[in-house]
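Hey,

The postdoc asked me to send both predictions to you directly instead of through the lab channel. I've kept everything plain text so nothing gets mangled by the mail client. Protein one:
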Amino acid sequence: MSAKNALIVWGGWDGHEPEKVAYFFRDILVAEGFHVTVSNTLDSFADEPFVLSHNLLIPVYTMSTITNEQFEPVRKAVAEHGIGIAGCHGGMCDAFRANTEWQFMTGSQWVAHPGNDGVRYMVNINRSNPHEITDGLPDFEVVSEQYYLHVDPGVNTLATCDFPTPGVDGPHTANPCKMPQVYTKMYGKGRVFYNALGHHCDVLEAEVPKELMRRGFLWAAK
């Protein structure tokens, strides 16, 4: 079987350590036998034949803007050609706030992180929804930003966290909910994987978050 190809494109807001996260993801994929290209320009997405030569696309690009010429090959790759897309935190689901089709494709959009960085909370695996990505993994504690997302109701939720978190005030506290933190979905023919963790790279380097990303990449690239 020939090796699969992955394209990682990083940039945007430096606070999310996009370069460090991109190369952390590269190392995970190389260990799984992928040929990986790492780019720091969205123009890599504008090269449609190049994009279509990959099995997996990984954006690590918080905020910023994307042109239609850069976005359309990605949309076509996922929706029409079945190429997977996977990512984490703001690098995928707070990437291009003005592009609602990006949000439609990726499944959610960040809107708040009550308490900012340093919130201690639990991520709970959805035991009622067995999946190869979460099989055998335990619930785990995180100290980081806790993402409050506006989420596509069609996503397949694999893990959640509880809002509100004790001691963290805000306008959301009157509306207790279980917020999706890890999910999959389909966008046309393509598989989509998202993990809301990853404010800094060290959050992803912990054992369970790293394994979630590894399994999510493999699932999305099938």
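Protein two:
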Amino acid sequence: MDQQTLGALILIGLFLLLMFLRVPIAFALGVSSLATAFYLDIPTLVVAHRMVNGLNSFTFLAVPFFILAGQLMGEGGISDRLVRFADTLVGRFKGGLAQANIVSSTMFGGISGSSVADIASIGSFLIPSMVKRGYRPGYSVAVTITSSVQGVLIPPSQNMIYYALAAGGVSLEKLFLAGYVPGIILGGGLMCLCWILAVRQGHPAGERHSFRKAVMVALEASIGLFTIAIIIGGIVLGVFTATESAAVATVYALIVTRFVYRTMPFHKIMLVLKQSLGTLATVVAIIMTSSAFAFLLAYLEIPNSLANIIFSISSNPVIAMLAINVLLLVLGMLMDMGVLILLLTPMLLPVAQELGVDPVHFGVIMIINLGIGLCTPPVGTSLMIGCSIGKVSIEKTLKDLIPFYLLMFTVLMLVTFSPRLVLWLPGLLD
């Protein structure tokens, strides 16, 4: 066995072993990278330089701002106002509360950029409410967790920032715009599915709201929703970059929750800052160690080996992309989404580019795949949180999830093989 093959086995094998032993992901990445560097006689200073270089990016500055903005909006009561607004829009229809759940996720996903944040805030209120209205607990969880996948597609998606960092040179502005159409298609498909299930299973309609109440609720929610206009409007009009929009959105979120909604007293602001700092510290550690890990992957030419394996299955681009999708779906069931993006992008993006797939398009394909993984056992974070809130077992929820899985897979195939759906909106920046 040559040195390169043994080095690859040490890198990947030790990482998987440490993951199996439940070592924190940042330590697993760092230890496996250092062990491999020692074996290959690569100076540790080079590894340290690669770790620091992983953070030496203007794009990375968007991460702490979007984390803070999302937590300010979540803790500041924006989610409650969005739920009431969504209920006035679609709550009166058959299965209206499920429809309101999806609309709420669409709007809140455009603010928090996180599937987990969506479920923790909106789901904590809507899942119990749906159960009280007569929906099955498993169905309530299924609607909530699958609609929350929009949060990783619709800007400001934190996972798109991770992809931009791992891909290197991919425009974050274009990535943000690329997620809108797939996110809206997913949301629209979920609403159609919920309407069909509501008719077949007799789900209740919600109450009708007076025009005056609807206008008041809309005005109150619009203040928070203006965050989306700041982020996307500023990017499209060229007022500021995605990173700059994150800073502006954070300041706006602080002003709205502190002085307009008056739901964020000083002590609560300090608590949010503390929580955000803890989240950011974890993210920084993972990005640094994953940068070193990615460097060693490239040094050992693992992406080329993976490309050869995929092309050995078939040189047909359609079959090769299906193989990549299957790989992403399986891995998404086993590991955290953000970590997989940082690890797999340096390996799979070169393969996708050889197949003629645009880097922005491939980023959206990867994020949808891994977003589905958030809703699947055994490691689906969104599935576990949703089941915990709904007080229902994963096994019972999976029965209700089957039609939702089929819908999400259909959207994935549509996005994979219809690049114009993804790329026409980012083309506005050219």
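Summary for protein two, as requested: Residues 79 and 108 are 7 Å apart (CA to CA).

Thanks,
C.
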